[in-house]
Amino acid sequence: MIEISGLYLQHDGQQILKDIDAQIPASGLTAVIGPNGAGKSSLLHCLAGLVAPSEGSIRVNGIDIIAARAEERARVVALLPQGTSSLPRLTVADLVAFGRWPHHRGRPGPQDHEIVAASLRVFDLEALADRRLDTLSGGQRQRAFVAMAYAQSTPWILLDEPLSALDPKYAIDIMRRIHALSRPGADIRGPVVVLHDLGMAARYADWILCLKDGHLFKSAPRAEVVTSNTLSELFDTAITVEQVKGCPVVIVE
Ligand SMILES: Nc1ncnc2c1ncn2[C@@H]1O[C@H](COP(=O)(O)OP(=O)(O)OP(=O)(O)O)[C@@H](O)[C@H]1O
After folding, report:
1. Which residue has a Cα nearest atom 13 of ligand 1?
2. Is 36 in the pocket of ligand 1 (CB under 6 A)?
3. Could you tell me if the CB of 38 is within 6 A of ligand 1?
4. Cα dihedral sign for 228, 231, 233, 239?
5. In angstroms, what is the span from residue 37 Cα to ligand 1's centroid?
6. Taking the complete model, does pTM exceed 0.90, yes or no?
7. Phi and psi based region of residue 164 (left: phi greater than 0; alpha: psi -120 to 50; beta: remaining)
8. Ligand 1 within 6 A of 210 CB?
9. What separation in Å is there between the alpha carbon of 18 and the centre of ligand 1?
10. Rounded CA gap, 123 and 162, in Å?
11. What's the gap in Å between 187 CA and the centre of ligand 1?
């Protein structure tokens, strides 16, 4: 579980996150949603322990993530930030292998190689392993970055807008793979994913944390968040939720 208590974050005298108390359950996929500038990326950086809040605490699986040493943090949480640069000269396999760095510190062993191979498999990248990143499509490249975060083998995997700039086919493909990580199995992970696509959040999230203007607007199971009233109020615009073929469909009017 991730436990956030009394969290405040300030940048240059501006309050970015304000008095956030929330819990993110250990099982299932969590989406973080909210308007532009609400503080979603800032929250993710705090959860990864990369940005120290001005007040409050964050415990990830019981560990005080702000006080923890970098190596300890990197074994609990992997963060894929928004708009990762493409590092063009690297191959896909090199990039994914970076995910193992916190474990081997430059001396990869057999287990690291096995985990890189498994990560390439999970994200269907084996055929692309030796391709340089600058020869891939945006969707393939994004899959490689998510695989790198996966290779870090942490119980939590934080992804900031992993679907941005992807066409529907690539977006649904990555979303399904991320969702599969959160399902019970041998290697279950807790994905926490910033999503602008409300349709994806409505369909794949088990839990949704909503931020608005730096405040916690709501943190609840999907069914309590994906309603016309809640989404309209969160985004200050008319939004209707309807059921089509048993799935919630979000219509921005
Ligand atoms: N390093 C920083 N220095 C100063 N202000 C910052 C910094 N990082 C973020 N901010 C400000 O904090 C606020 C929240 O930004 P953040 O990127 O966390 O929001 P977001 O919800 O992820 O936005 P978006 O949906 O547009 O990506 C914004 O007003 C932004 O300008």
Report:
1. 37
2. yes
3. yes
4. negative
5. 5
6. yes
7. beta
8. no
9. 13
10. 14
11. 33
Sheet holding 77-80, edge to edge: 77-80, 156-160, 190-194, 30-33, 207-212, 215-221
Here the tokens at position 82 are 């928004």
Give me ligand 1 centre to Cα 3, in Å. Answer: 22
Q: Could you read off the pLDDT of 110-160 as tens digits, one per residue? A: 888 999 999 999 999 999 999 999 898 888 888 999 999 999 999 999 999
Q: Ligand 1: which of 7, 16, 51, 215 to mutate, judged by most atoms within 8 Å of the beta carbon? A: 16
pLDDT tens column, 66-93? 999 998 999 999 999 987 666 668 999 9
Residue nearest to atom 7 of ligand 1 (CA): 11
**Domain architecture of the chain: domains with CATH:** 1-76+154-227 (3.40.50.300), 86-151 (no CATH)
